[in-house]
Design brief:
By secondary structure, the chain is an all-alpha fold. It has a single domain, classed as Globin-like (Orthogonal Bundle), CATH 1.10.490.10. The protein contains eight helices and no strands. Helix 2 crosses helix 4, helix 2 crosses helix 7 and helix 7 runs antiparallel to helix 8. It starts with 7 loop residues before the first helix and ends in a 9-residue tail after the last helix. The model has no long low-confidence stretch (mean pLDDT 93).
Length: 131
């Protein structure tokens, strides 16, 4: 007997929802002067890459891997100075985008937990404690 599993990709509405999620997130990044400073000048390629990565990660088509190979997220993000503070700003905007799009449970919690964990792994610059 085979199990029919529904993916998060399917549960939340597929590519259209991921497009809306990425657009909402990037609008917040563009309005955040501090976070915007670590993003490339042209945000459009990043929007496409993020959408395809998230679609694939959550059970949709493997467009990201077909076009870019293995995600290697830490390597791809290493050129950008990601501090704990900027990680928190990124997470704040992504979690707000999830709410803006109206992603419902159980997908909402799964996605929030993933972004919290994944963003922590991207931190690559640490600030010394202030005295």
């Amino acid at each position: 007997m085979s199990e029919n599993r529904v993916t998060v990709y399917e549960l939340i509405g597929g590519e259209e929802t991921f497009e809306r999620l990425v657009q909402s997130f990037y609008a917040k990044v563009e309005a955040d002067e501090e976070l915007r400073a670590i993003f490339p000048e042209d945000l459009e390629p990043g929007k496409v890459h993020q959408k395809f990565f998230l679609m694939q990660y959550w059970g949709g088509p493997a467009i990201y891997s077909e076009e870019r190979g293995h995600p290697r997220l830490r390597m791809r993000h290493n050129p950008f100075a990601i501090t704990p503070h900027l990680r928190n700003r990124w997470v704040e905007h992504m979690l707000a985008a999830i709410d803006d799009v109206g992603i419902e449970e159980p997908s909402r919690s799964l996605m929030r937990e993933y972004f919290e964990r994944a963003a922590s792994v991207m931190v690559n610059r640490y600030q010394p404690p202030s005295e």
